[in-house]
Amino acid sequence: MNHRQHPAPRPTTVTRSGPLTWVQQWHWFEHTIPAPRRVNPTPLADHCQVPPGATVDDVLAALASLTARHEALRTTVDPLEPVQHVHRPEWAPPPVDCVEVADVDAGTLETATAALAARPIDPERNPPWLARVLLVAGEPRAVLVATHHVLIDGWGLAVLIGQLHELLRGAAPARTPVAHPLDTLAAQPLERARAAEREWLTRLATNPTNVLAPFGGRADGAGRHRLQHRSVEAYDDLDRVARRYRVSAEVVVLAALAHEVAGRTGEHRFLASVVVSNRARAALRGSVGVRALTVPVQIDLRPGAAFGEVAASVAAACAAAYRHGQYRVAELVAAQARMDRRRGVVAVHTIEYNCYSWPRDYLVPGAETRPDGPATWIRSEPDEPCDTLYVDLSRDAGVVTLDVTVGDHLLDAEQAVALPVRLCALLRALAEGARCPVPARALAPAAPGWWRAPQGWVCLPRLAEVVRAHPGVLDVTVTPAGETGRGGKGPRPAGENGRGGEGPALAGGTGRGGEGPRPARETAREGYRPALAGEAGRRKGEGPRLVARARVVPGVTSADLHRHVLDHLGEVPGLLAPDGYVLSPAGLGSGPLPDRPGAAGSAAGTPRLTARPPATEAERALAAAVAAVAAPDGLPAGSSDNPVAVDMNGCLADHGVTLVAVPRLLALLHRSGHTGIASDELAGTASLGHLAAALEPLRDRAHRGGETSP
């Protein structure tokens, strides 16, 4: 979380240095997030068999050859600045050890690979990879490799394992130069990146959020489930369906996921985030450096459509999205934080989907392994819940493997285990010729308390609890205040308005007449100015409104409540900032709260938040750190035209600061004697005042010594 200052790499070992690429910046930031809070903690680890006759010396020689060829294997990153350093091949001892085992059967390989993946890797001081040779009676039988995602991605690991196996089989070492991320810096397409960022923001703003939560999971769900499902039968079924509809097997599985979500929720328009390798050029296909990013795939399904139409629609959406695979992640995250705070809702894609090209057999079977049928292994962890359904597909050796990570508030353990089983059953039905039309409505109604707003689903009791938690609030009710075109009859019941966007059109959240969100750099200064939450698309006549009616003690204002809700958007799932607040004084008694704006002592409408300077010691420390790392195009600290240079009512992105400055900001807080904020909290929607309230006095502690590869 907080980094201590490290000495710079020794000049005698470094051959060249330079900035991190846009993709690397995200993974560099991600490795500063505490492991329980990471959205996808899956390690990158794999193995290959050692051919007969190869010795341990052959394995070491092959790894040394690969290290010499791939600069990414001898690259470190700076702990505080987005900079990388390439070292000489012999700069550090090879991170390889040998372990004697009784056999190298599948169970042993799974256990050993998982154990290696769990070992810490410190990409700031050491090589970003580990290797372990499994010996049987002193002879090498398998090589396990784990890599850190900040410098090597999944495609790169597959390349590395493949080349290692070829060298062990006696192939001559390749002499062709391999591109390092430093070699691609000048070719990063800025205008294309800005277009991709606009596309991401538009898709996030025009798709519903919290799609899955009302239709599954536990109301008090905490933590997440990680499971792996393997099916031999699904391998052939998947091939048959792909040939039938003339799309790839990967598209078929994504289409099946979309079909499942539509059937469960009744939503027919939602967003999927799909990982692409960004290696279309032949020169990059042999690179192990990290290049993969996600693209926004728009899922649009027609109720009643046969699966063939679904597959064709998903394939077209993927093709349209793939051109948006290169963008500035740091700028996009900041732009989304500003947009979410302005709209009063955290935009979340419903599905995140990835396709692996290497065996994913390192997840160790747990106590819940089913004794019959396809193998399904599940582990439930008390980590921070994740708000997206993560599904990874791999096809290897005649087996389809589906890895699932999902928050307990989205799917409970039983529902999580049933998901891949249902997907495989759908593939079987399709392979046998079924049409499998898209359901027109949800299979079951939404859970009590959930309401479909134009921006997505909101849990009204949970929102009321958050408002009630503000000091000085004695009682509160949160209710929709009517819907256009229903003659004042009020909103549709929860679930009726959730049929694939049949309700009021979703606002883009820009306040610019539906032109779409502005680029990140264009909104850096504008985002600093406190703005009305949901300033576009939630005006009179444009859809149902959500109103919070509260009885409060004197001194509590609607701006106080609105700021309080905005500060909890990223902490409490299922929230949406109300469009208006109606306040009544505590002295009016304990009867029903006023049902209309204009009641005595009330303040109607969404309030404008005014800037606030730091007031406490913790706030001053955080403000000083923010001012020190403020981006060049952010507001100048102490400028005469804006004396409140750091606004404690704004989030970090409102000050023009992106995630690449977060490690240095945390180090400055560390130096001033404060800790208690996670790096991802700083990059989110919470105001600086809310974050400062969580700061704690620093206790001396040792350097974390690396971490498990994310």
TrEMBL record:
This is Condensation domain-containing protein. Residues 518-528 have a biased composition (Basic and acidic residues). Transmembrane segments: none annotated. InterPro entries: CAT-like_dom_sf, Condensation_dom. It comes from Streptomyces hintoniae. Gene3D superfamilies: Chloramphenicol acetyltransferase-like domain, Nonribosomal peptide synthetase, condensation domain. Residues 56-344 form the Condensation domain. Residues 477-543, 587-609 are annotated as: Disordered. Residues 497-516 have a biased composition (Gly residues). Pfam families: Condensation. Signal peptide: none annotated.
